[in-house]
Amino acid sequence: MCDMNNDATLHPVMLAGTGSDVGKSIIAAALCRIFRQDGYHPAPFKAQNMALNSYATPDGLEIGRAQAVQAEAAGIPCHTDMNPLLLKPQSDHTSQVILNGKPIGSKNAYDYWRRGKSEIDFRSEVCRAFDRLSSRYNPIVMEGAGSISEINLRDTDLVNLPMARHANADVILVGDIDRGGVFASVYGSIALQTPEDRQLIKGIIINKFRGDMRLFDEGRRMLEDICGVPVLGVIPYFNDIHIEEEDSVALAQKSFAARQGKVNIAVVMLQHLSNYTDFDSLEQDPRVHLFYTNNTDDISQADIIILPGTKSTLHDLYELRRNGCAQAVIKAHRQGASVLGICGGYQIMGIEVCDPDHVEGDIERLPGLGLLPTTTTMSGEKITRQVTCEYGSGYEIHMGETRPFGDAKPSPLLHLDDGRADGYIVSSKCMGTYVHGILDNPSFADFLLKPFAHKISGSSAPGSQQGKTAPFCYQAFKEEQYDRLAAHVRQHVDMPRLYQILGVGRACTDI
User: What's the predicted TM-score (pTM) here?
Assistant: First the structure.
């Protein structure tokens, strides 16, 4: 820990990257937890984010999931000022634009990046959000996006060095040694900056190192010599600390093979899958083996099939029918598998999905899987809110309204505290809901797993009289992981030097 005046105002710090997926988000989360542990009141900030994995703030607005995770690590409620601009891809060329938590329409990528005549001054919007945030928290832990060396986008960049200039932030460049070429990527990223921006880069962190750290001692000195910037740390690769991630790159690498003594859960890999962090708690549940797949044979081996959220319900429903997954899910359910739909997956489970106003595209109607007696009509109004129900809490982010089809009777899965009903349940093996995060609640996870209690080895089965161990608590698990992440980064980053860079002259002492 650090022995210093914690009332001091620290400079903002920006984690910038030599490329995408170098670990900026995770290191930002670690610094948020470290600063909190050291007595500061930090908050995360990313001016512009591109992700399908989003989160609802307490006041019912929408931000990127990474900033919600970082806020949780900092021990504060998330707010749209932490991520004022969110782009949610709808196709290879268009994205829905979320500004200050609210959708303002869709933009073509070329028009967005060449937006010199835009009716909205996005740069002013994100700068005002930063200013509001920095007046309330200390320090601000900023995150860049992608690579800082995309010089063709320099004039329109809102999130990297131009944002650091506005914030007067100290920039720490993060490079990924695991992918190779770290010397070229770090040196090139610095060399390609303007002289003004180069002065903002105060340190380098090498991330995802494998092997004996001593082998990089000479490399560390060489990097400092050629870049003229200190290497603040070399962080070893880890796979035993679990932090919710925003990118879905690794999902398809999950093990497919069914396991004995576990409840096997298949999450169907939709092309526009969103909010896949809904399933992080189940991945850590010792009773469960969870995997992601769009293979019909894998689906047939699952005890429970989950249809997840999607940014494009009709497109993904069409694709499920084309690739045979829709038929595989229906067949597996007839043979005893449970099916749970969340958000877009809930819509897909119904009799039909209708889009008369072409909110999502050209398809006006598609038949659903017919597992629930419901019909969904898409609408342009997005519903974003946090909710509480009999099982616990969660949040909604969706477009469209789902209701019973024809003369089917209402059969809500959840009863919300505000008096509304949510979802539909046919049986304990067939149900759907709009509530993301519902699986983080232990009582709902127990409800989902209960039909397969006989398959679970040991005393952790839901309802087991043997099991006197405490039930799995995902929130406590996450808190432990943030602390472990902070300890890992603190061990391998020169925190006293970082504090000096950020304006604290007194040294840190390890306890």
Answer: 0.83
